[in-house]
DNA sequence: TGTTTATTGTTCATGCTTGAACTATCATGT
DNA sequence: ACATGATAGTTCAAGCATGAACAATAAACA
């Protein structure tokens, strides 16, 4: 009756997910270092990326996209707004919401940051074929989906 | 000359890594919620897991394993020690280091927490075959390795 | 031996994230 | 129109993680 027989480390899901978490953590920290010269942090880059793809977003929608509290957005945006990287314009129809969009300099900084990010990912995923890479993304999208609605 | 042609979102590595990061974030938050009844946080679970597998570790080694600063460990351990989940015993040969090990109740709590963790992973990775799962882990170990030595 | 350098763990100030309470605005239903 | 409830954003206190500076100890070497 050795309980090691049922240890999670013998389970593929567990063992491999631990690797996912570690890799994610490593990349996050490496990204933070690589973005430092741009005076940008990963969380701020996430904001810029989402505003680039979804201009006119509200803060609430942005918070949901980033899986983060609304108050976090409130604390995050003024820094970027003061650096003239994004605009917050109040919606004409609903005076509660603020519509977010990148300024040209915000877009320019985003492009620089994305080059940095891509450089890091190219180095880090060098050994994965495009097919493996797509399979990876597919699994991860399923994982995120499984946690979405609940 | 549309710069969208070279946007990172068209690049498999970028697009799929974004999915990895999002999934990781989701699982982390779901795990935090699932562990709440045990009054345990993901970072604390990481500590218990590592001490279970590597009893007698020093705080420095633990910090490196967890990809975290030493001061973080210093702030993290007293909570767990006060709950009688782990012991810190000074090394006889080197009076600087503290040897860490789980107490029986620490091990018991770890087992409970692992059941919770496994339950979450089973739900979340339900759609991935063992082979896919292993490939996933293999890629992630390569990613972590690529960031290791530098 | 004595001096210099490295390493372990701690302390502390800083910044980030969270969740709860709050205000202002809109939507619903009577 | 009016009451009720829902939603967007803010404020605030609390908890975590970080990195720099520090004390104690060990290692390297003259």
From TrEMBL, chains A, B:
The cross-references to Gene3D superfamilies, in alphabetical order and at most eight, read: Winged helix-like DNA-binding domain superfamily/Winged helix DNA-binding domain (1.10.10.10)
Q: Which GO terms describe its molecular function?
A: DNA binding; DNA-binding transcription factor activity
Transcription regulation recorded as keyword: yes
The record's InterPro entries line, in alphabetical order, gives: HTH_MarR-typ (IPR000835), WH-like_DNA-bd_sf (IPR036388), WH_DNA-bd_sf (IPR036390)
Instruction: List the keywords (alphabetical).
Output: DNA-binding, Transcription, Transcription regulation
Q: What positions does the domain HTH marR-type occupy?
A: 10-145
Q: What is this protein called?
A: MarR family transcriptional regulator
Q: Which organism is it from?
A: Pseudaminobacter soli (ex Li et al. 2025)
């Amino acid at each position: 009756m050795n309980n090691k027989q049922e240890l999670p480390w013998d389970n593929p899901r567990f063992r491999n997910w631990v690797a996912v978490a570690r890799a994610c953590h490593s990349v996050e920290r490496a990204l933070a270092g690589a973005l430092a010269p741009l005076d940008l942090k990963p969380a701020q880059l996430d904001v810029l990326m989402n505003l680039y793809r979804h201009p006119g977003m509200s803060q609430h929608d942005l918070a949901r996209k980033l899986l983060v509290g609304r108050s976090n957005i409130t604390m995050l945006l003024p820094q970027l707004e003061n650096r003239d990287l994004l605009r917050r314009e109040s919606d004409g129809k609903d005076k509660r919401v603020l519509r977010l969009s990148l300024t040209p300099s915000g877009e320019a900084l985003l492009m620089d940051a994305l080059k940095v990010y891509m450089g890091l990912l190219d180095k880090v995923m060098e050994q994965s074929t495009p097919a493996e890479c797509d399979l990876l993304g597919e699994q991860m999208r399923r994982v995120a989906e499984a946690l979405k609605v609940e």
